[in-house]
Write a structure and sequence with these properties.
The complex is a heterodimer of chains A (about 300) and B (about 260). By secondary structure, chain A is of the alpha/beta class. In chain A, about 30% of the residues lie in helices and about 30% in strands. Chain A has helices spanning about 40-50, 70-75, 95-100, 110-115, 130-145, 160-175, 190-195, 215-220, 235-240, 265-275, 290-295; strands at about 1-15, 15-25, 30-35, 55-60, 80, 150-155, 180-185, 200-205, 205-210, 225-230, 245-250, 255-260, 280-285. The chains are: A alpha/beta (about 300), B mainly alpha (about 260).
Chain lengths: ~300, ~260
């Protein structure tokens, strides 16, 4: 069942086409991701769907509601985490939870949520004293307080350290297991690949490709790579191994490109049967980042996170 | 309604955690009245046209309390909420956004009244403070002054984009205003030149208005050429202009 339908969404800022005719659907219970570099139109798209920006053109339908005109019903059913929200300097964790609980008709018990996300011990502390990861958890708690059917997460892990990022991934997966539909944006390709059931690659305001991460990689036609070091090898024979398309031998290192589930097994069997000595065997499967390059013709430049460096 | 009440509850807790606002709302005027009252007493004095110094200064200090809430607390809170995207986050809930403004108005208004009551109690019990005017006219003047000064706060919140500039602007307006308008130092001994500067400040009209009504006097010993009518007109004009601009210029968030 489709819970979000977006049809020909257009949003301009002056002469800049931030979102340029985007259409897609999100199914109930899936994690739908939108990836792309900064400025690609992710946040504008998600905020139009969240009812926070008014599209210039296009139709948005969420749970059969129009986000901009059915505000009260809409926000009872969806939970929103905005990119870069901070909270009042001197508000305490339990106070902001209490406040958000009072905004909804049937709020969940926020104490349970605080316990679940490991923030219960901080409930009497000031929000501004929380770490980046804890603040993001709080944002998720506030998005969950209404017990929404759909959750919007805009760059939930940007600026988090690797551990906090993994924690966040676990939380997102758990939310999916509970039957929530999740719409997220990220500029981390590996995050989209790990979390999302379906991914829309967006670049310059347009959706370039939309599919499951596996299918996207397959569609890109980028092959698996196997490399190992050896002394001497017959390249022509190696090319005949099933699945192998291309072989190169340079400075004692063999690099093989090919496809197929059994590619690695076939290659290793060949080496073994022909008693060819090899070491340092490595394999590399193409990832979404490679696919981005393929689909847009541009290198995917990730924004450097200050916190990571 | 449930939402508005929780919002007011939280906003009230938060305003009590702001040192500057709490100090100037609750402590500053009380300290000033204890100081001036302690030095001059509240006996009739020719310097204050035959009134006691405390009787003249208490209505002036109400201006100090009113402006810290209207010119500092109100715009700084709204700009902070917008700057940190708290307003935007609230827009993504079923709450009606006007509640945020209503709550801020109520909280700042209540704190002003608490500060004023504190001042009245100290004035009454320590210096035998006297009120000579008509209580209903005073309440009317208080409401119009509140709306007028709060509308200036809204104007700041509407025109200033980030918390740093808002802080600078609120401080630049507030501090000179409380010292030059007669709200803290008696305007009675201001030279002509300073009186003209004072007349450029909205708070001068509020202080003048409060004193006129409180003392039921024409303040003939103050050479300011103001009158009840001028005060009311100036404050209402400020209210209309600031409110009108704010309505068009105020943004809940910037894209």
């Amino acid at each position: 069942m489709k819970v979000i339908e977006v049809n020909n969404l257009i949003k301009n800022y002056g002469k800049i086409k931030a979102v340029d005719g985007v259409s897609f659907d999100v199914n109930e219970g899936e994690i739908f991701g939108m990836v792309g570099p900064n400025g690609a139109g992710k946040t504008t798209t998600i905020e139009c769907i969240e009812g926070l920006r008014k599209p210039d053109e296009g139709i948005i339908n969420v749970l059969n509601l129009n986000p901009s005109t059915d505000r009260e019903k809409f926000y009872e059913k969806v939970g929103v985490q905005l990119q870069e929200t901070n909270y009042q300097d001197k508000i305490k964790v339990y106070e902001i939870c209490e406040l958000f609980a009072s905004l909804y008709k049937k709020p969940l018990n926020y104490t349970d949520l605080l316990k679940r996300f490991g923030l219960y011990d901080f409930k009497n502390g000031f929000v501004m004293k929380l770490s980046g990861g804890q603040k993001q958890k709080l944002s998720i708690i506030l998005a969950l307080i209404s017990n929404p059917e759909i959750i919007f997460l805009d760059e939930i892990t940007t600026g988090l350290d690797p551990k906090a990022r993994r924690d966040m991934w676990k939380i997102v997966k758990e939310l999916k297991d509970e039957g929530k539909t999740i719409f997220l944006t990220t500029h981390y390709m590996e995050e989209a690949e790990f979390l999302c059931d379906r991914v829309a690659i967006i670049d310059k305001g347009k959706i370039v490709e939309l599919d499951t991460p596996e299918k996207l990689i397959e569609k890109s036609g980028i092959e698996d790579m196997i490399s190992f070091e050896t002394k001497d090898i017959n390249i022509e024979e190696l090319k005949k191994v099933k699945g192998v398309n291309e072989v190169s031998f340079k400075n004692g290192e063999v690099t093989i490109y090919g496809r197929g589930e059994d590619l690695l097994k076939e290659v290793v069997d060949y080496l073994y049967l022909n008693r060819i000595y090899f070491k340092n065997l490595k394999t590399k499967k193409p990832n979404l980042e490679d696919t981005f390059l393929k689909f847009t013709g541009r290198e995917y430049v990730e924004v450097k996170d200050e916190n990571l460096n | 309604m449930k939402t508005l009440i929780s919002l007011i509850k939280i906003d009230f807790k938060l305003i009590l955690r702001e040192f500057v606002v709490v100090f100037f709302s609750l402590a500053f005027s009380v300290l000033m009245i204890l100081m001036f009252g302690g030095i001059y007493g509240n006996e009739p004095s020719p310097f204050f046209g035959g009134f006691g110094s405390v009787d003249v200064l208490v209505p002036s200090y109400l201006g100090v309390i009113l402006s810290v809430n209207g010119i500092m607390s109100l715009p700084l809170t709204l700009v902070e909420y917008r700057d940190k995207k708290i307003l935007k986050r609230f827009m993504a809930t079923p709450m009606k956004s006007n509640n945020i403004i209503i709550s801020q108005l109520i909280v700042n208004f209540v704190l002003t009244i608490i500060g004023f009551l504190l001042l009245l109690i100290i004035g009454k019990f320590v210096f035998d403070l006297k009120f000579y005017g008509n209580i209903f006219i005073f309440i009317l003047a208080f409401i119009i002054s509140t709306l007028s000064i709060f509308s200036i706060g809204f104007l700041i919140a509407s025109l200033v984009k980030n918390i740093r500039s808002a802080n600078a602007i609120a401080n630049i307006i507030y501090f000179p205003m409380i010292f030059l308008s007669g709200a803290t130092f008696p305007i009675e001994n201001f030279p002509k030149f300073m009186l003209n500067i004072a007349k450029a400040l909205p708070l001068t009209y509020i202080v003048d208005l409060f004193k006129r009504i409180w003392l039921n006097s024409d303040l003939s010993w103050v050479k300011s050429n103001l009158s009840l009518k001028i005060d009311f007109i100036v404050l209402i004009v400020i209210l209309i202009i600031c409110f009108a601009i704010s309505v068009f210029k105020f943004r809940w968030y910037y894209d």
